[in-house]
Design brief:
Length: 223
């Protein structure tokens, strides 16, 4: 089952000359795939993630998620689609500083209108699966980088999305935590059938993925 499909996907920027950040990318990801998107800085990894996640609009081409074309979706409908179908993990964790770990993870279910008892059951279940129950009442400032990234993964998968997009998720972590985070995401992919696309130049990540897509100058160079 195809979760992601892009057709001739391109993103151009004009700064006196035309810069092709993403250039005619055709890509398919199936359900449960655990894939690394690799390439040097400026190769187009983050732009491609943003296009697939509907954060950025393509200059040309199409993006399909779960069979639905999102490239032309109106913003309101796209926001709702992202809320239910996508999860995001960032290099800088992006947790809300004034909220506890529990509240950070619960927020997406709150936006979805999930009843309070069910929210609690789902959040605590995911905390248990990720081995972070003891972090539930802590704010981000009282957690290590590795702990914050585990909470960020919990937030990304608590609503069981079809696709999780992770942008350099191990960049701010030491080796032990980086490996643990990758193994955690891999486990969630296998157990829950969630498709992961991880933009990275970290060998600790792509050595543990099943598929590596190499992007150079906005084009897929190797798959």
């Amino acid at each position: 089952m195809e979760i992601v499909k892009t057709e001739n996907l391109s993103k151009y920027y004009t700064d006196g000359t035309i810069v092709k950040a993403v250039d005619g990318v055709n890509l398919t990801l199936k359900k449960g795939e655990f894939t690394a998107l690799v390439g040097p800085s400026g190769s187009g990894k983050t732009t491609l993630l943003n296009l697939i996640g509907g954060i950025d609009k393509p200059s040309e081409g199409k993006v399909f998620i779960d069979g639905q074309e999102i490239s032309l979706m109106p913003e309101k409908k796209l926001a709702k689609f992202r809320l239910h179908k996508l999860g995001f993990v960032f290099q800088s964790f992006n947790l809300i500083p004034v909220l506890t770990a529990y509240e950070n993870v619960e927020l997406i279910l709150l936006f979805q209108g999930v009843p309070k008892n069910e929210r609690r059951e789902r959040v605590m279940r995911i905390f248990k699966e990720l081995g972070i129950e003891e972090l539930a009442d802590r704010t981000p400032s009282k957690m290590s980088g590795g702990q914050q990234q585990r909470v960020a993964i919990a937030r990304a998968i608590v609503h069981t999305p079809s696709l999780v997009l992770a942008d350099e998720p191990t960049a701010n972590l030491d080796s032990e935590n980086a490996i643990a985070i990758v193994e955690l995401m891999k486990k969630m992919s296998e157990e829950k059938g969630i498709t992961f696309l991880i933009a990275t130049h970290d060998s600790r990540v792509f050595e543990r993925t099943r598929r590596i897509i190499k992007i150079i100058d906005g084009k897929i160079h190797e798959d």
